[in-house]
């Protein structure tokens, strides 16, 4: 055995996922346990010590009691999560790994873990700080890059709006969009975050959604139009948030806009458990993972009844006057109606399966 630590039993600390949250998750849904761990690795086994442990929004989705895009996270086990760890012991027959090596694993919220060499990816600390394996060079980075570049397809000069801009994914989308030559508008909560989004991330504008009340999506939408330089100027909407924020962005979509439905974090504290109750339509799409497109004036009329289940009263999708009305008089229309009637939208859900695809494609 190769080891950097003693042969005395080591103490492990583990966060056990104990009960399912109804709303916001907190420490009461977890239990911290200390257990001894044998420092001797078995054949084909590594013992690793965690250095960086991720806390990601998808974990809250997995805490739902019923299947969402994945099976519910079981109760009574260590909270699953991505981890950057260091090998402290390797079984004698293990090749390719030695104590001191940094690895990316999925061993969850615990200090020590035993794993098979096939379950870890070796990291090179000379290439980049190892913590980036959970950020810009890891899952959030891939999500931001492929989500924006493949699903959003930004073109120089276009306006890209990003919700959840100050977060792991959003902060990268802003920077990628700027490098793609776009005008970038971020949406974040609070002045400090908006300053960060402009000054550090380089967004051209930032809107503080917290300045608007829960029913003020029209006012929020008007403010967004102002910073975008006019109405209906949003060419790409990269959505991390959903809910009221998305309700406010949709009326500002330009013709042939693209929506990247990356996440719906505003709904995770309960809205996704009862998704029909969740505000905004994108959370439904984020579960059903459709690709819908060709909803333009010219090509989408036959698709309206199935894609727009509640058109504005008095609007008949088949009538040309309604068509014209919904095409032009946008700001009073429900968001769903706007999407289908005003913009050619290719909305791509970055669902779990897409995420897996991205992992493979990286
Ligand atoms: N599809 C995929 O493969 C994939 C992969 C990774 C992430 N995602 C999704 O991408 C989104 C962002 O993930 P992340 O890793 O960047 O998360 P993060 O670093 O935790 O950031 C999330 C951001 O969301 C904002 N937020 C939280 N609650 C909100 C609410 N109720 N209304 C509006 N904004 C809210 C917060 O900013 P404020 O303080 O400004 O509100 C925070 O900065 C999540 O929806 C996540 O599920 C999807």
Q: Could you explain how this protein is built, in words?
A:
The radius of gyration is 23 Å and the shape is elongated. Helix 5 packs across helix 6 and helix 9 packs across helix 10 (335-342). The two termini are 34 Å apart. The chain is α/β, with parallel strands linked by helices. A seven-stranded mixed sheet has the order 12-11-10-13-14-16-15, sandwiched between helices. Strands 1, 4, 6, 7, 8 and 9 form a six-stranded antiparallel sheet that branches. A three-stranded antiparallel sheet has the order 3-2-5, with no helix packed on it. It is built from eleven helices and 16 strands. The chain folds into two domains: 2-134, Alpha-Beta Complex (Quinone Oxidoreductase, Chain A, domain 1); 140-293 and 345-361, 3-Layer(aba) Sandwich (Rossmann fold), CATH 3.40.50. Bound molecules: NADP nicotinamide-adenine-dinucleotide phosphate.
Tally of distinct domains: 2
Q: Which molecules are bound besides the chains?
A: NADP nicotinamide-adenine-dinucleotide phosphate
Helix content: 25-40%
What about the largest sheet? Answer: 7 strands, mixed
The gyration radius over C-alpha positions equals 23 Å
Q: Can you tell me the CATH topology of the largest domain?
A: Rossmann fold
CATH superfamily of the largest domain: NAD(P)-binding Rossmann-like Domain
Name the average pLDDT. 80
Low-confidence stretches: 293-349, 351-362
Spatial ordering of strands, largest sheet: 12-11-10-13-14-16-15
Q: Can you tell me the overall shape?
A: elongated
Count helical runs.
11
Helix and strand pattern: EEEEHEEEEEHEHEHEHEHEHEHHHEH
Amount of beta strand: 15-25%
């Amino acid at each position: 055995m190769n080891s950097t630590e003693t042969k005395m039993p080591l103490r492990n600390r583990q966060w056990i996922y104990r009960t399912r949250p109804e709303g916001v998750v907190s420490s009461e849904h977890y239990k911290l346990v200390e257990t001894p761990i044998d420092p001797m690795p078995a054949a084909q086994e590594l013992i690793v010590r965690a250095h960086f442990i991720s806390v990601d929004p998808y974990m809250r989705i997995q805490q739902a009691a019923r299947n969402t895009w994945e099976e519910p996270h079981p109760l009574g086990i260590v909270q699953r999560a991505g981890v950057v760890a260091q090998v402290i012991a390797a079984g004698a027959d293990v090749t390719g790994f030695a104590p001191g090596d940094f690895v990316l694993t999925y061993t969850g919220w615990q200090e020590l873990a035993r794993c098979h060499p096939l379950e870890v990816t070796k990291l090179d600390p000379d290439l980049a700080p190892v913590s980036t394996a959970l950020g810009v060079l890891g899952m959030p980075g891939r999500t931001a890059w492929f989500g924006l570049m493949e699903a959003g397809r930004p073109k120089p000069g276009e306006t890209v709006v990003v919700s959840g801009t100050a977060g792991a994914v959003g902060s990268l989308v802003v920077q990628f969009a700027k490098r793609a030559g776009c005008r970038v508008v971020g949406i974040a909560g609070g002045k400090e975050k908006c300053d960060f989004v402009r000054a550090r991330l380089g967004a051209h504008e930032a809107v503080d959604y917290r300045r608007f009340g829960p029913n003020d999506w029209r006012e929020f939408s008007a403010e967004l139009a102002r910073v975008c330089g006019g109405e209906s100027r949003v060419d790409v909407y990269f959505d991390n948030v959903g809910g009221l924020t998305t309700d406010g962005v949709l009326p500002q979509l330009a013709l042939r806009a693209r929506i990247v439905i990356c996440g719906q974090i505003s709904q995770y504290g309960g809205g996704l458990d009862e998704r029909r109750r969740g505000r905004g339509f994108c959370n439904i799409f984020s579960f059903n993972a459709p690709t819908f497109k060709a909803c333009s004036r010219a090509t989408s009329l036959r698709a309206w009844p199935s894609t727009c289940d509640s058109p504005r009263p008095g609007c008949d999708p088949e009538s040309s006057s309604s068509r014209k009305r919904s095409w032009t008089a946008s700001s009073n229309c429900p968001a769903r109606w706007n999407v289908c009637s005003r913009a050619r939208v290719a909305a791509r859900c970055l669902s779990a399966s897409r995420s897996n695809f991205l992992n493979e494609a990286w």
